[in-house]
Specification:
The chain is built from six helices and 18 strands. By secondary structure, the protein is an alpha+beta fold. Helix 1 packs across helix 2, helix 1 packs across helix 6 and helix 3 packs across helix 5.
Length: about 300
């Protein structure tokens, strides 16, 4: 795909909480359909940082980078890249994300984005999407288990956010029956993510098993609406409850992260009243833009806090 013409590029040196950062190509268009530039993306992340950073702290971050914008190629990056500043906190963890060595003893060195300077450094590398595990690391970088469970509601062909909202109400009931309080977040793409905090950290295998149990239970009781099967052919007109994102090696886009969608959409915490409205009305809930996400934080604070 041909790249859209870019305006003259600039760079600036800025002080971010005592760290000097070189921010480059600020006029580069990263979202061609809206003309949104890298500078505007950096501004969004700087402004959303007070509510975003608490949800990244202690979690290894996988970045998806679009060096030439969302109309071009992207790539996943787990390890901290060459040239990572020495002040960026990192954690060397097994590839499984579980305590102890993986089967082959392989490890990854993830950045931990726990301060504004680190966030700006990552975004300056065109990391539009920030994905995190459900498990955390301690002060020494050792995995301590999952502190939350997540179920990704992914609509199949013929279904959308409206159907996801209806199914989310069912998932909420299933979680409540297990004394778990669900918190909804739009995915910023097509569906919804439901999170439930845990009283104590659990191994990812246990949270995966619990999420799978819930997904299969709802598939049995509401097979016309729900599937727990990853096969795409079986998702048509239904909502896939992706329980697998609780596995030690899997990640989910962080609340308040941008997505690499045609327009700059954000994974945004919502209320259950909004989810219920989305279930009642096909136009009752939509994905949110950067500006809308910032406006919501100004109005409601951090709904995911």
């Amino acid at each position: 795909m041909p790249r859209s013409p870019q305006r003259p590029q600039t760079e600036v040196h800025v002080d971010v909480e005592g760290r000097t950062l070189r921010l480059t190509n600020l006029e580069k268009v990263l979202y061609p359909s809206t003309g949104t530039t890298k500078g505007e993306v950096l501004d969004y992340y700087a402004r959303i940082a007070p509510v975003l950073l608490p949800h990244l702290a202690g979690r290894p971050v996988t970045r998806i980078r679009w060096p030439h914008g969302v109309g071009d190629k992207s790539f996943f990056e787990k390890n901290a890249p060459a040239g990572t500043p020495s002040w960026v906190r990192t954690a060397e963890v097994p590839t499984t994300g579980s305590r102890g060595a993986s089967r082959h003893g392989d490890t990854l060195v993830f950045p931990i984005i726990d301060q504004l300077a680190t966030l700006m450094w990552a975004v300056n590398l065109a990391a539009l999407e920030l994905h995190v595990h459900q498990w955390t690391v301690d002060g020494d970088g050792e995995p301590v288990g999952a502190d939350r469970l997540v179920i990704d509601l992914d609509p199949g062909e013929g279904a959308g956010l409206h159907e996801c909202c209806g199914v989310a109400l069912l998932v909420r009931e299933a979680l409540a029956a297990r004394d778990l309080d669900a918190h909804p977040v739009t995915s910023g793409s097509k569906g919804l993510h439901l999170y439930a905090r845990l009283d104590a950290p659990l191994p990812p295998e246990e949270t995966s098993a619990l999420a799978k149990e819930i997904a299969e239970e709802l598939q049995t009781g509401h097979g016309d609406l729900v599937t727990a099967t990853m096969t795409k052919a079986r998702r048509r007109g239904k909502v896939f409850l992706d329980w697998s994102q609780n596995a030690g090696s899997k990640t989910t886009v962080a609340p308040y992260s941008l997505r690499g969608t045609p327009r700059p959409q954000v994974a945004t915490p919502v209320t259950w009243e909004e989810v219920a409205e989305g279930a009642d009305d096909p136009l009752g809930l939509d994905q949110f833009t950067m500006a809308q996400a910032l406006e919501r934080v100004d109005e409601y604070g951090d709904l995911f806090a």
